[in-house]
Design brief:
Strand content: 5-15%
Number of helices: 8
CATH superfamily of the largest domain: Peptidoglycan recognition protein-like
CATH topology of the largest domain: Lysozyme-like
CATH architecture of the largest domain: 3-Layer(aba) Sandwich
CATH class of the largest domain: Alpha Beta
Strand order of the largest sheet: 1-5-4-7-3-8
Oligomer: single chain
Structural class: alpha/beta
Distance between the termini: 19 Å
Number of strands: 8
Order of helices and strands: HEEEHEEEEHEHHHHH
Largest sheet: 6 strands, mixed
Number of domains: 2
């Protein structure tokens, strides 16, 4: 894994991050430091349209970074500040995600695989941010993880396996005797809704992250994979 990261840095280390400032930011509340990285897709066909939206004061949305299909990284909001990308949601005990996170938008419609160059630049950037702020792999999440049902990004086409291989996202190590799915996903960071009908949204968010080819009602694969993620958490803290 270390050698892979070294190769990655050699491949994209020459990249220049392009400054494209957005006015849509503020101060992180309660002097919070970034402890979460949130990944999004733009759901737009053209990266210029996404840049315009993220930098338009009328939209009141932004992210810290945007990466296009060619792997170009745009810096929109300095990491020290609070970008407006997550909206209402929760991850673990954190309810003000914007104040505690760094948001990365990825140029993708949500219906197709993410480009190789985009993924390599993302891995480079995530590795850098994690080092800067001591962020653990389990706190590299998708927008859907913090807001199941309300958000779908980065979706089932996103290559989480690439980040997992590089140690940049949590992975499942299914060797665990605790197979209580709902207790386990709470340990991971998901919020379990009190309303039974809303639990399907949490299952979908979990699958988009850990079981991308799994469908239908909650089943043994979901339960097994969730226990494996919990098993791996001890390596992160």
């Amino acid at each position: 894994m270390v050698k892979e990261l070294e190769k990655l840095n050699q491949l994209v280390g020459h990249l220049k991050i392009i400054s494209n400032p957005s006015p849509n930011f503020g101060i992180r509340k309660n002097n919070a430091c970034p402890s979460i990285i949130v990944l999004h897709y733009t759901a737009m066909d053209r990266v210029n349209d996404a840049l315009e939206r993220l930098c338009n004061p009328a939209t009141e949305v932004s992210s810290h970074y945007l990466i296009d299909e060619k792997g170009t990284i745009f810096l929109l909001v300095d990491e020290e500040y609070r970008a407006w990308h997550a909206g209402q949601g929760k991850w673990g005990d954190c309810e003000d995600i914007n104040s505690s996170s760094i948001g990365i938008e990825l140029s993708n419609s949500g219906d197709t695989p993410f480009s190789f160059f985009l993924m390599e630049s993302l891995a480079f950037l995530v590795n850098q941010i994690m080092d800067n702020w001591s962020i653990t792999p389990n706190n590299v999440i998708g927008h859907s993880d913090l807001a199941p049902g309300r958000k779908k990004d980065p979706g089932r086409h996103f290559d989480w396996a690439r980040l997992e291989f590089l140690g940049l996202a949590s992975k499942s190590t299914p060797i665990n005797s605790n197979y209580d799915f709902w207790k386990n996903i709470e340990k991971i960071g998901y919020t379990v809704p009190a309303i039974e009908d809303q639990k399907v949204d949490v299952i979908e968010a979990f699958r988009a992250r850990h079981c991308q080819n799994n469908y239908g009602p909650l089943n043994e694969k979901d339960i097994f994979m969730a226990s494996g993620v919990v098993k791996s958490l001890k390596n992160f803290f």
